[in-house]
Amino acid sequence: MGLTIGVDIGGTKIAAGVVDEEGSILATCKVPTPDTPEGVVDAIADAVRTVSEGFDVEAVGIGAAGYVDDKRATVLFAPNINWRHEALKDKVEQRVGLPVVVENDANAAAWGEYRFGAGQGHDDVICITLGTGLGGGIIIGNKLRRGRFGVAAEFGHIRVVPDGLLCGCGSQGCWEQYASGRALVRYAKQRAHATPENAEILLSLGDGTPEGIEGKHISDAARQGDPVAIDSFRELARWAGAGLADLASLFDPSAFIVGGGVSDEGDLVLDPIRKSFRRWLVGGQWRPHAQVLAAQLGGKAGLVGAADLARQG
Amino acid sequence: MGLTIGVDIGGTKIAAGVVDEEGSILATCKVPTPDTPEGVVDAIADAVRTVSEGFDVEAVGIGAAGYVDDKRATVLFAPNINWRHEALKDKVEQRVGLPVVVENDANAAAWGEYRFGAGQGHDDVICITLGTGLGGGIIIGNKLRRGRFGVAAEFGHIRVVPDGLLCGCGSQGCWEQYASGRALVRYAKQRAHATPENAEILLSLGDGTPEGIEGKHISDAARQGDPVAIDSFRELARWAGAGLADLASLFDPSAFIVGGGVSDEGDLVLDPIRKSFRRWLVGGQWRPHAQVLAAQLGGKAGLVGAADLARQG
Amino acid sequence: MGLTIGVDIGGTKIAAGVVDEEGSILATCKVPTPDTPEGVVDAIADAVRTVSEGFDVEAVGIGAAGYVDDKRATVLFAPNINWRHEALKDKVEQRVGLPVVVENDANAAAWGEYRFGAGQGHDDVICITLGTGLGGGIIIGNKLRRGRFGVAAEFGHIRVVPDGLLCGCGSQGCWEQYASGRALVRYAKQRAHATPENAEILLSLGDGTPEGIEGKHISDAARQGDPVAIDSFRELARWAGAGLADLASLFDPSAFIVGGGVSDEGDLVLDPIRKSFRRWLVGGQWRPHAQVLAAQLGGKAGLVGAADLARQG
Amino acid sequence: MGLTIGVDIGGTKIAAGVVDEEGSILATCKVPTPDTPEGVVDAIADAVRTVSEGFDVEAVGIGAAGYVDDKRATVLFAPNINWRHEALKDKVEQRVGLPVVVENDANAAAWGEYRFGAGQGHDDVICITLGTGLGGGIIIGNKLRRGRFGVAAEFGHIRVVPDGLLCGCGSQGCWEQYASGRALVRYAKQRAHATPENAEILLSLGDGTPEGIEGKHISDAARQGDPVAIDSFRELARWAGAGLADLASLFDPSAFIVGGGVSDEGDLVLDPIRKSFRRWLVGGQWRPHAQVLAAQLGGKAGLVGAADLARQG
């Protein structure tokens, strides 16, 4: 099979791209994400038609946040779009006349990194995506593992603190409340509030108040040596690394890949994650250690991964 | 392949059995577990020779507590026997003249249940063994998943309480400190100490003191309605069920199998585990629920599983 | 001194009452709580004038939620009214021409119970108020202990869960997030959501959905045997009792008094609190145990206590 | 009253000293702590007689670890000596012919610091002693507050981690498991084990292994910049400061005094404690902040405090 299309459905934009067998993106287009479920289906179809012009494409892979069933056809539940048991595969196939595969977006990104990014050469890889929330994907024996019902690898919702922070999922103490971009901002706000004298750089980058702190301010301030910003990254890393140690006890992969916006900071965040991972890895002296690698494809991992999954059929 | 031998190395006894393709045990023998690493190797070889007399056996599978490498040949670390990078496969093969496979004991038990017990008919099964500690095994796509380095499925050592109880592994807050036979006894002792008037039956079964409480007393007392015994099982179930919910978020299997001595109590412990599982299952209303099943093979699961893994080669 | 006036400033209503030396209320009036800080001052003055008509009153005691300074004159911070360093004593004295004492409302309620309610005869009493939040007061050596700066006894904001639930105070894991009327409702909603079949009575009392559950439904349902309602009270009691055990380690009083709306349920909630208290009381076998008593004055404790504190001057 | 004697009963030595009204020690003697309860009584009497020779002393104050009753006469329970309801006051009075006051050792030390050390000039002071464990004392309104039954101020055993570390007291998650000399050593061992490359200085001061790390090594290594030693102090400080913030919510003192062996390190440990205290202090922007002061009397605080309490009668 030659060219396929990957579609990445984000909260504000839908991106579609033509991808070849090497994972290279030959053409892309973006459209705003409509408000209604049906509107999104139309927008996907439009984007696919637009981007495929002039290319001979054979299949479409769609990455969407939420639960996708084991047939990779139906979105059982999406947190951002009002899809409930939405037969997305059928609807898009009818509109574009190509075979469609639907995949959870973090699974698609994990597959992209495994095939064309940091995971190349590994058979058993766990990817985590530290974005606004925390998602991930599981590759075991060179296959994406989706679970019996299609909803495996919901890493963000394992409970790391009993009676901990409320989560949008309805549970408490979920990992993504402690290791995610949103958590990072919370850490910085709390610390800047308690000890503003240690957050002068950080506060100067925003509107001067703890409430005005945004994610990009924390990265910039940490690079400039702001103590609160650095400490906030460390706190995030403590939780991320401890969670990876748990995943090592469970999956024992040869590599972890850390992606998502937070990972764009590279070793600023990866080094403390590695340190925390080693600190909490059980039996660390008796076992080979998995590598903790930075993702390589950035925001394109999901699109490229979805396209490749469509190619595999 | 016809008959194989399974060997189960326990802390006090080594059991060997001849097992056929249906998982039936045709003959068994037991010997005490020697004190020295070399002594254990000899004892295994003796047991294999003894039990195989009169049978035409083709391979040997050994289940041992600890880390076993990905070649299923070397015990990297055993908690109970002083094995450190012990080339168990080679040593036993030299002595018995048969191909040998070494497997983690909880993995072997999981495989036994999957093949011949509660897991039959399922492709994706997670087994947990609530014994003195907490172990388990992962079957995905009808294969035992051992991880890249052979040490996956160490369920007992995921961290469920930050800064929690010390664990023999050197970490803190490990799941097996909260969901295991040892935890059950601790729960009962603490409660009997604080409110002896609610533990009259329980205390009467032992020596009358909280310190004298043993696991079997708790089961008996719970059946007779002892409030402390019942509450202790509930506490165990709370932690077990919440952990299964985490494993569902990660693995999304079609079934969980709960084995080990604690599970011998059947629905006394399984019903509260199921309740807690449902309470903490994330996205429970949008996804099919995994079944939570009682193991069926009891203490023989490991021996039968090891024999079958040897048959598979 | 003869008669004094107590004023209780609530979120929706301001109550004023004429109280005699025995703690009896001779007359009362209620007015709605105005929106503006200045409006509240006016309303207090009006209520005092209205209720004192025909009585010879000598002083006014005001109970207000928030931090009150050690001179009992200034409200440093109020959570519900926009008072920030509000000189409440001076402002009301100017309007009503009587000496005024300002006190934290939970302190006032504690004093009321100590003088005329469940605490009579005790020299060292700790009161906790399980209302929407969790407050309390400290009596040691027959004196109300307000701390050096007036802000002692903020029981609701000790941290009982590291990295726990966010609190309105900006911290995390505060006791009132786990032991309060608001917590009770959260427990019931979570449980009714996860296992609606165990919450049939509870759900039938509201609008049929977990979201529609209110505090009064939980009490009624618990009395009718609803498993989720009973379990929710138990969870609240677990946290309340464990916290009392901490307070016993710190203060070693002869009695705890439990007040607030939640305590109106009497032994339904007090018995499990006592059980949990005993479970967690450190050194319980070597020390006399404090009693855990139900408050006796209900919603009038604050008004009566404030009046009596004004009498004491 | 002129001179009194203070006695400090330690696990290995009993120290007695003649103390004047200014808190100056005029003479001291030390004897080993005998093994038997009765032997300790004899040794106390001998030490008192020996040290008082040539002085006109009027009373004896004894500081002992454990629960002391509200009459300051009977040791209800001592963790280190097998005293259970030991009538220590009577027994020593009969032997030495002087009035005797028995006090909890941490209370005595708190009183010493309040009268002659860091607490001078404060009316409301909370002392914590970070020794092997964590103890403390409460001064409110210039009086030592012992609770109704004499066992107040057991700070070490408030629960700061639900389901946390086992404590010698039988409970779990006690503060002293996280903030004490013993905790500090555990932090250092765990970290040196996980990341020995960050503990080179620390390991070089002991026997080269994590197991060989002792408290004094950690202080020395921290001063020399060893990352693991510094991080261990920070972890201790995190827990100590968060606990002080809780005590501020409860007691609202004007000062905290931090004593015990850990505090000998001065600002190395006090600065991070102050930082953590500020981080977790609830309502910090609306209230005056208590000072966090280093104890001044070192190991003599208990002896001097006991002597002064005897003087006060």
Automatic annotation (TrEMBL), chains A, B, C, D:
The keyword Coiled coil does not apply. It catalyses: D-glucose + ATP = D-glucose 6-phosphate + ADP + H(+). Its EC number is 2.7.1.2. One of its GO terms (cellular component) is cytoplasm. Signal peptide: none annotated. It holds the Pfam family ROK. Keywords: ATP-binding, Cytoplasm, Glycolysis, Kinase, Nucleotide-binding, Repressor, Transferase. It is an enzyme of class 2 (transferase). One of its GO terms (molecular function) is ATP binding. It is found in: Cytoplasm. GO terms for biological process: glycolytic process. Homooligomer (possibly a homotetramer). Alternatively, it may form a heterotetramer of two glucokinase subunits with two ORF2 (AC P40182) proteins. Belongs to the ROK (NagC/XylR) family. This is Glucokinase.
